[in-house]
């Protein structure tokens, strides 16, 4: 297995995830949210930016059912969604 | 100066030192002043602390410049020098041994340091959770992430991604799903690892949470969704080597976990 590329090329080293592994959702408790997210993706030709609200809801579902460590959503990169929500509520009031 | 006159001048000049000063010292200080140099002391050691003409006691002009007569002071100097040399040698040897010892000690010490600070061997510019909070999506760089799923031949699971691709931008967190079904009639424990192609982009691919590197147990005929929550580091957009990279492929492979067999995690964490 020694080709011209074997020496000096950077090989890939897998890194463990930052927050560990997701516990498995054996009972499908968050399956509904997942289906909503997948539907949104399919409708928007798999653009992640348009389906972030659904992914946020899926993660919130997981957190509620002890399938994920509870964390403030800003730390998961949803700061813009939360700001929008708080703005909307502010305007409503 | 009078006493240090003609009689002495010849000898002292031949010796090549400062004759007047030496005489002054000898006469004035009475032996209490420090010698000009060790050599001098050696040469004039036979004389008393006075310039009185005791020529017969004078050992005569030195034969060569560098030879030091073995008087008591000279011997003391010699011993002093030897002792100094030995001390220096001891220090140097101790330093060398210390260096060798440190290079052996570095391995466990670094491991401890990594465990304490959680770097885990990844010296990439920090992608901690505070970075996720503050990072801004780079909206003009759209990257297509495709998903691939593999299983080891001995693992009879039906493992596949639930979306073929997803379009993300660096700095934006994204969620993706895989699905796994245990098609056997026995509970099976699997463990997975992942790969990112191209390799250089792999260092920018940060997984916040996934299902890899931990044993996952599936009951008979059970099917679960396995999410991967990841983001691409915003620094990806600034790396000139990544300028042409538009496609990243994330590939997961599941293996069967042998009971009781603990796999080493990559890096030094845990």
Blueprint of the fold:
The complex is a heterodimer of chains A (93) and B (270).
Chain A: H1 31-43, H2 52-64, H3 79-92
Helix pairs in contact in A: 1-2
Chain B: H1 6-15, H2 19-29, H3 38-43, H4 72-117, H5 129-134, E1 143-151, E2 157-161, E3 165-168, E4 173-182, E5 188-197, H6 199-202, E6 205-209, E7 216-218, E8 223-232, E9 247-256
Parallel strand pairs in B: 1-9
Antiparallel strand pairs in B: 1-3, 2-4, 4-8, 5-7, 5-9, 6-8
Structural key phrases:
heterodimer, A: 93 residues, mainly alpha, 3 helices, globular, B: 270 residues, alpha+beta, 5-stranded mixed β-sheet, 4-stranded antiparallel β-sheet, 6 helices, 24% strand
Can you put this structure into words, describing what you see?
With 93 residues, chain A is mostly helical. Chain A has helices at 31-43, 52-64, 79-92. The model of chain A has no long low-confidence stretch (mean pLDDT 81). In chain B, the strands form 2 sheets. In chain B, strands 3-1-9-5-7 form a 5-stranded mixed beta sheet. Chain B is elongated and about 115 Å long. At the A-B interface, α1 and α2 of A face α5, β3, β4, β5 and α6 of B.
Distance between the termini of chain B: 85 Å
Q: Regarding quaternary structure, how should these chains be classified?
A: heterodimer
Gross geometry of chain A: globular
Cα radius of gyration of chain B in angstroms: 41 Å
Order of helices and strands of chain A: HHH
Based on secondary structure, the structural category of chain A is mainly alpha
Percent range for β-strand residues of chain B: 15-25%
Radius of gyration of chain A: 19 Å
Structural class assignment of chain B: alpha+beta
Number of beta-strand segments of chain A: 0
Distance between the termini of chain A: 68 Å
Q: Could you tell me the strand content of chain A as a percent range? A: under 5%
On the 0 to 100 scale, the average pLDDT of chain A is 81
- Give the total of beta strands of chain B: 9
Q: In what order do the strands lie side by side in the largest sheet of chain B?
A: 3-1-9-5-7
Low-pLDDT stretches of chain A: none
Low-confidence stretches of chain B at least 5 residues in length (pLDDT < 50)? 120-126
Overall form of chain B: elongated
Query: What composes the largest sheet of chain A?
Result: none
Task: Sketch the topology of chain B as an H/E string, one letter per element.
Answer: HHHHHEEEEEHEEEE
């Amino acid at each position: 297995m020694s080709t011209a590329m074997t020496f000096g090329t950077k090989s890939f080293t897998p890194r463990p995830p930052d927050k560990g592994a997701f516990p498995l959702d054996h009972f499908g408790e968050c399956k509904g949210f997942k289906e909503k997210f997948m539907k949104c993706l399919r409708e928007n030709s798999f653009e992640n930016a348009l389906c972030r609200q659904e992914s946020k809801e899926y993660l919130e579902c997981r957190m509620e059912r002890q399938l994920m460590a509870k964390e403030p959503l800003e730390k998961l990169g949803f700061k813009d969604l939360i700001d929008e929500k708080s703005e909307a509520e502010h305007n409503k009031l | 100066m009078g006493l240090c006159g003609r009689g002495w001048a010849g000898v002292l000049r031949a010796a090549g030192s400062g004759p007047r000063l030496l005489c002054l010292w000898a006469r004035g200080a009475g032996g209490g002043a420090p010698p000009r140099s060790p050599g001098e002391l050696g040469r004039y050691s036979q004389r008393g602390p006075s310039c009185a003409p005791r020529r017969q006691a004078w050992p005569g002009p030195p034969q060569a410049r560098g030879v030091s007569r073995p008087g008591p002071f000279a011997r003391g100097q010699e011993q002093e020098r030897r002792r100094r040399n030995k001390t220096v040698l001891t220090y140097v040897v101790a330093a060398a041994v210390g260096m060798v010892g440190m290079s052996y000690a570095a391995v466990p010490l670094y491991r401890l340091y990594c465990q304490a600070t959680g770097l885990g061997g990844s010296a990439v510019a920090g992608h901690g959770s505070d970075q996720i909070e503050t990072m801004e999506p780079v909206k003009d760089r759209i990257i297509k992430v495709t998903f691939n799923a593999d299983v080891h031949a001995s693992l009879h699971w039906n493992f596949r991604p639930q979306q073929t691709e997803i379009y993300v931008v660096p700095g934006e967190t994204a969620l993706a799903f895989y699905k796994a079904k245990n098609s056997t009639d026995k509970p099976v424990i699997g463990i997975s690892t992942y790969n990112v192609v191209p390799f250089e982009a792999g260092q920018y691919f940060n997984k916040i949470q996934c299902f890899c590197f931990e044993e996952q147990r599936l009951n008979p005929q059970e099917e679960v969704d396995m999410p991967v929550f990841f983001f691409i580091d915003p620094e990806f957009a600034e790396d000139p080597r990544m300028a042409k990279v538009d496609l990243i492929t994330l590939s997961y492979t599941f293996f069967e976990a042998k009971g009781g067999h603990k796999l080493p995690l990559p890096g030094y964490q845990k």
